[in-house]
Amino acid sequence: MKTWIAGAALALATLTGTAYADGHGEYPERPIMLMVSYGAGGATDFQARIVTMTAGNEDALGMPIAIVNRPGAGGRVGWNWFASEAESDGYTLGAYNIPHFIAQSIEGGVSYSAESFEPIANWGADPAVFVVGADSDFNSMDDVVSYAKENPGGLTFSGAGLFVGHHIAALQLEKAAGVKMAYIPNNAGGAGAMRAVIAGEVLGGVNNLSDAFRAQAAGNVKILGVFDLERNAFLPDVPTLKEQGYDIDNASVNFRGVMVPKGTPQPIIDKLAATVPAMFENKRVKSRMEAGGSPMHIMTRDEVLAMWAAREETLKELLAGL
Amino acid sequence: MEFLFYMGDVFTPINFGLLLLGTIGGLILGATPGLSPTMAVALLIPFTFQLEPQQGLILLGAAYTSTVAGGAVSAILLKIPGAPANIATTLDGHTMATKGEGAKALQLSFLASAVGGLFGVFLLIFLTPVLAQWALAFGPSHLFWLAILGVTVIGTLDSSSVVKGLLSGCIGLWLATIGFDDIMGAQRFIFHPAVSGGINVIPALIGLFAIPQVITMFTKGRSSDDAEIITVQRHPIRLAVLEVFRRKTALAIGTITGSIIGLIPGVGGQIAGLVAYDQSKKFSKESEKFGTGHSEGVIAAESANNAMVGPSLVPLLTLSIPGSPTAAVLLGGLLIHGIFPGPDLFLNYPQVAWTFIDSMLIGQLLMCVFGLYIAGLAASVARVPHAVMAAIVLGLAVFGSYSVQNSMGDVYVMATLGVAMYFLERFGFSAAPLVLGLILGPIAEANFIQGSMIANATVGTGTYFFTGWLNWLLIAIVVASISYSVWMEIMSRRYTTKDDAVAKEEALS
Prior knowledge:
The complex is a heterodimer. Chain A is of the alpha/beta class.
């Protein structure tokens, strides 16, 4: 019933649009909305629902957070709306995915950039991994790269779309190994890209560590490498790309967190920045995230600001050649 | 037969209570326009945080089953499909309702849903490993041809002429290109912020079906004081049962088509009902009666969209890949309890997996019982005067469109498309082919682009799209479907003048 009441209250408040207090001391006075720019059931949506489930507790925000999905075009639809139409009153939060929205803003054609948003806190970091079908001949990244060298442009591998973490990882791999491969963006996101690998439609794929971990547990894929600086706790036996001799950093790691639109009053940003990371630390949240195979990585507002800036620089350099 | 062993778990007080709650709640949510099965299941996810995994899944499974069936209520009584899966139900179901057979149509739809649904779940129980391979068999080239097959259905679907059917289909295909394209992210025809995300199927569906209804109701109410009211004759359930089993062809075609299409990831329930409707029309001895309130139309459409429920979970339960948005939400419900679906699911968590599947079986029966009860109440819905009804439908239409993503933009899209459809209907165009175009456009386009990218890197476009038995089978069905339509068109020169269209319109409303 809570969601219903929250939803109804939210709808009412948005419609009247008058509940704007001058002093922000009492914030939040009504339920808060969190916009997720991917569909219900996707990894971002799933994790956003878990990390916000304790928002109504007295030691957190004291008000529930309702998730609203605005999917489309790899997140562009939701973030466009968030940058240009969302109200900056502190009652409209958004979920961000790095490097997705920064890469898209560098590519152009969207009405947002890193300057359009104010980060609040980061909850998770999901590195990209390279997967091949369980019966594939490839057993290491070297096998993949030598196949690509013999067949320039002929090694097909899937990913969730263009200018998302998977695409960045693909570009990094091509650059570091000095080969040309055929990246096939999938219209059904990470799940579709994984299906293409399992069905043998493509020779390999870049996918989320959390999803690949499950697919490997189900015996459908082999994971050949992690696109991160260190090995991951979920997959201690899988070497990073760097260990296998490719100069690839963590630029493709999918960081997920909460932000507000530019123009949100500073007192509200400060209040959120102080309470939200603590909310993510909740024991129940952590156990649910771990059970779901979702790696957590909590960062404060200042850390996120630094991370955004660093990521923007790397991506500008990487995408300049496109 | 392991599923029988865990059957008892469904009937513990808490589990059975949740099953009842999910079924009744699902019927109500399903009957509300705009609340598609995906949204209904997503709304329930937070409740499952507090429950045991088994109990959570029972709630979600029951809700999934009954929202799909519940969509038929508004499709039949109001001509607003509760979800894309129920589009085909409006074609004959609502016509039956206008003839005073609303109760009969509802009874038939729930009985057919239960038969289809039970068949689908039994497939899931007995044939899962075989079906999993089938779900993987459909690559981009096959999905492309499947979408083209859907396009060929457009011409023969509920239109006064094939040309007009194809024209409305093309309008739908064009509408589907608005917004960012799915793969490259290119922007097309974005002339207003409301359509920057493309045209969402749910608001379009509500607008195209509901708004012309509302306008007609209002005009009727003004022109005469004694605006006629849909009467609902009582219809004994016994006769409905006999009717469903007398229409064996429609029931079999609906059930089998629904199960096969439900398996294919990414296509799913949205077109299962329409394809089944079209196929049973072509195979029926009384195909000319389709569209005029023929019971076979309702039976085929509703058995298909519920038969798809069981098989649509096959890729999720065996391969851990969600094949539809609803399955993706269910995956979330499993993961939150640390349960990873996959081939080991039935070994590691037999109690959860089997109880879930058993509850879907029992859920189908409960859904049927409550559905038949609702059918008895249909008479009271129909007693509402036209003007009041129009206001209620308009309210539901705005609420349903807004609730998809809390966006007024969707309400504008709904209203604009609805008003445009009102005028198109007066010229003999109909909404079903238009929506089908809107649904199929992105499937055809994205799979063609993806297929050609793979083809260019490997074997070449010609070889990729034109080799393999599955490609050829689909191409053959496409050719057969087109030839049939052309032949029918020549045999019975179907065309409509403006007067005919107006006459038909008045007869309908």
